[in-house]
């Protein structure tokens, strides 16, 4: 009863100055608050939740009953849904169906929280859930901001029902270039056994061109082909660049130079002055969480400041443990949310949003920053040409333009050096940087 009085009081106070929407649901809980904050709050629509029919019927301000819509059934649960997931049509738009019932509200929660990745799923050799296994890919939605599309469709249907506009706003964000530094140099600073083994491999394979190139780089007669840091720094003068640096110990799939080398530390410090800096946790740290703590502490010691952003090496994500470990280490934003094998929107949005931990059924403080495409996806997985890549990027950008959010993209220092198979691909990144939105980013 006290909750009903508080709701009625807040509605009366706000109704004079704001158009606040009152929403009735079967049970006010964290899932409903989280999902409706994405649908309404993200778009500047004031809303208030109630599960009281008496209170709802007495309110004269704009209101909608999702209980009568028979929507949001997954939000009324507390665990992983055991419903049969399919595809259907709701009010003329495609969405997920749960036990045969089309439900755009549950669809948003299901995709946004990556609920399907908590279930038994097919993983690749790196233990990753791949884009072509996702419900969005299978339904043709992966390159759409599908959660935002569903949110706007829900808002439009409410407006028709209450016969007045809710004045939703599209938040156009920023172009955010991001770089993963997996292998700082091709030749420089590589010493000892590692250097000798690499040279021996070149001799055995008859790769004398590479041997000659190594000699010239080490003699300082040629620039290391992976040394694109000056150019990255120039990009950071115009955009809010994020750099994620691998400092884990050398291993099978962790191939960077030792973090203990002074010259390497000096470069890290220099680049950290140009862009926001984050940890790129090693491949093995995903299974051995104590390594994440060691690597982060080492990077912080080099930088002499806290590291609060991250992106996983190889985009390795295991729900919910990867994010739980990051939270325990004080990470505030993670930029891993995208697929290696497919371009598009893993969470169905380009907006920043808080991670919802389904294992404890609660919203967390960790902010998720989805990216739209990765360089390796374009060339190595999809085998796109440079022209095809630009066309695909333009389509993704237009989607973000229409539905809001930040246009984040992932490159590596070695892929923009016009070297080897990546010759000419720097032009694709340069093209991305020329894209403009209505706010003249």
What does this structure look like?
This protein is an alpha/beta fold and 441 residues long. Among the domains are: 1-69; 174-186 and 224-433, TIM Barrel (Alpha-Beta Barrel). Helices cover 37% and strands 16% of the residues. The chain has 16 helices and 15 strands. It has helices spanning 2-15, 30-39, 53-58, 66-69, 104-112, 135-138, 146-162, 192-204, 208-218, 229-236, 262-272, 289-303, 321-328, 375-381, 386-403, 426-433; strands at 21-24, 47-50, 63-65, 85-90, 93-98, 101-102, 172-181, 242-245, 276-279, 309-310, 333-334, 353-357, 362-368, 373-374, 405-412. The strands form four sheets. Strands 9-8-7-15-14 form a five-stranded parallel β-sheet. Strands 10-11-13-12 form a four-stranded mixed β-sheet. A three-stranded parallel β-sheet has the order 2-1-3, sandwiched between helices. A hairpin with a 4-residue loop joins strand 12 (353-357) and strand 13. Helix 5 (104-112) runs antiparallel to helix 7 and helix 15 (386-403) runs parallel beside helix 16 (426-433). The longest helix is centred in the last third of the chain and has 18 residues, at 386-403. The radius of gyration is 24 Å and the shape is elongated. The termini are far apart. Residues 1-18 have low confidence and may be disordered.
């Amino acid at each position: 009863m006290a909750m009903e009085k508080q709701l009625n009081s807040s509605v009366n106070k706000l109704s004079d100055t704001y158009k606040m929407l009152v929403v009735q649901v079967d049970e006010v809980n964290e899932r409903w608050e989280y999902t409706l904050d994405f649908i309404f709050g993200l778009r500047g629509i004031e809303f208030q939740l109630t599960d009281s029919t008496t209170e709802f019927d007495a309110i004269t301000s704009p209101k909608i009953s999702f209980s009568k819509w028979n929507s949001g059934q997954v939000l009324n649960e507390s665990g992983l849904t055991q419903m049969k997931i399919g595809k259907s049509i709701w009010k003329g738009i495609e969405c997920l169906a749960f036990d045969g019932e089309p439900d755009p509200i549950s669809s948003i929660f299901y995709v946004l929280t990556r609920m399907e990745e908590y279930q038994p799923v097919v993983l690749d050799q790196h233990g990753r859930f791949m884009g072509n296994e996702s419900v969005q890919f299978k339904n043709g939605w992966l390159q759409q901001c599908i959660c935002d599309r569903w949110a706007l469709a829900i808002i439009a249907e409410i407006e028709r029902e209450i016969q007045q506009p809710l004045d939703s706003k599209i938040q156009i964000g920023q172009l955010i270039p991001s770089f993963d530094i997996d292998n700082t140099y091709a030749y420089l600073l590589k010493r000892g056994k590692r250097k000798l083994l690499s040279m021996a491999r070149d001799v055995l394979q008859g790769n004398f061109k590479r041997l000659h190139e190594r000699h010239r780089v080490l003699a300082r007669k040629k620039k290391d082909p992976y040394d694109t840091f000056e150019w990255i720094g120039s990009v950071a003068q115009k955009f809010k660049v994020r750099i994620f640096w691998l400092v884990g110990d050398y291993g099978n799939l962790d191939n960077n130079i030792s973090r203990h080398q002074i010259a390497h530390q000096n470069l890290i410090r220099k680049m950290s002055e140009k862009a926001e800096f984050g940890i790129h946790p090693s491949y093995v740290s995903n299974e051995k969480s104590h390594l994440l703590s060691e690597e982060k502490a080492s990077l912080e010691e080099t930088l002499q400041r806290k590291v609060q952003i991250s992106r996983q090496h190889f985009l390795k994500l295991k729900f919910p443990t990867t994010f739980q470990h990051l939270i325990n280490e004080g990470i505030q934003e993670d930029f891993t949310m995208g697929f290696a094998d497919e371009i598009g929107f893993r969470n169905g949005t380009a907006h920043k949003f808080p991670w919802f931990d389904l294992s404890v059924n609660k919203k967390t403080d960790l902010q998720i920053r989805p990216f739209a495409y990765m360089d390796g996806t374009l060339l190595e997985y999809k085998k796109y040409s440079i022209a095809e890549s630009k066309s695909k990027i333009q389509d993704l950008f237009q989607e973000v333009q229409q539905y809001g959010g930040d246009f984040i993209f992932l490159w590596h220092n070695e892929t923009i050096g016009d070297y080897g198979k990546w010759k000419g691909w720097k032009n694709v990144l340069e093209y991305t940087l020329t894209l403009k939105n209505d706010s003249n980013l």
